[in-house]
Amino acid sequence: FPDNESYSNLVYSRTTTMLWLLREAWGEQRLHAMLRRFVAAHQHGIATGKGWVEALTAEAGEDASPFIKYWLLLDRGQEQAAEAWLDRQRAAKR
After folding, report:
1. What pTM value is reported for the model?
2. Mutual orientation of helices 15-26 and 79-91 as an angle, nearest 10°?
3. Best CA proximity match to 60, nearest among 11, 21, 17, 10
4. Which among 22, 33, 42, 7 is positioned nearest to 88, based on CA atoms?
């Protein structure tokens, strides 16, 4: 990272925004339940990016890769696919 601000923007700001979008799409209870399951599953091990994508995919019922690629891997080419994924999650809110 070129400086502390760019690191902070990626690690904290984008991740927080991503979680707030999921909270909006799924509701607070569903997001928190999914996060608790993820933490419990990795409590005594190492959580990986692949595991995070798998957990989101399982909760969403569809591949979460475009959403993760855009929000966490900064693949700007995935922006439309990420937004479409999020729109489908909002529409299918359980």
Report:
1. 0.84
2. 30
3. 21
4. 22
